TrEMBL record:
Recorded catalytic activity of this chain's protein: 4 Fe(II)-[cytochrome c] + O2 + 8 H(+)(in) = 4 Fe(III)-[cytochrome c] + 2 H2O + 4 H(+)(out)
Name this polypeptide is given: Cytochrome c oxidase subunit 2
Subcellular location: Mitochondrion inner membrane
Cofactor note as given: Binds a copper A center.
Organism lineage: Eukaryota, Metazoa, Ecdysozoa, Arthropoda, Hexapoda
Source organism (scientific name): Drosophila ficusphila
Topology of the protein relative to the lipid bilayer: Multi-pass membrane protein
InterPro entries (alphabetical): CcO_II, CcO_II-like_C, CcO_II_C, Copper_CuA, Cupredoxin, Cyt_c_oxidase_su2, Cyt_c_oxidase_su2_TM_dom, Cyt_c_oxidase_su2_TM_sf
Cellular component per GO, a single term: mitochondrial inner membrane
Principal localisation: mitochondrion
Cofactor dependence: Cu cation
Amino acid sequence: MSTWANLGLQDSASPLMEQLIFFHDHALLILVMITVLVGYLMFILFFNSYVNRFLLHGQLIEMIWTILPAIILLFIALPSLRLLYLLDEINEPSVTLKSIGHQWYWSYEYSDFNNIEFDSYMIPTNELATDGFRLLDVDNRVVLPMNSQIRILVTAADVIHSWTVPALGVKVDGTPGRLNQTNFFINRPGLFYGQCSEICGANHSFMPIVIESVPVNYFIKWISSNNS
Ligand code: CUA
């Protein structure tokens, strides 16, 4: 979860989010180097003494400053494509969770396990526990096993919503009449918070997501206590 003055990305809870953070830092470093170089050159321009005012062309330097940026762009494009295809790779999921966006709450279905289904509403501020997180906690959490491949299917019942959990690197639109798929692997236990990130109506800000990541045997206990 993000806390005060956290301007960067949240700590990752999945290998893919870790890769996304590495790529973000890599791209930002290149961006900073370009900005500093261009800023320096523009500043230096103020002190130009016009000694080369009869110089009209320079084949070599033009060749260099055309090809060099193209190579720099490749260093961003290739890792970006690698990540893009890696994010889409499905690797034998052991659990499939279906999540349906509604105005304004999420509902979940564990179709693999006796069709467990429930709604997940935000807890209103006046009903919040003293240690609860305002606008972020829900009445029914999504319980998922850690160290397992999890597939998520996202759709919506009314308008477009978006199932977004930053620590897991997941952001999938829920669109009425469609079923979107992605997958993730949670590599530590804990609570991971997310929010709808598609402007879906008046209470768009009030349909958070809470994932409770637990060891596999705890998950089995939870799932079997639910389908009595
Ligand atoms: Cu649902 Cu915004």
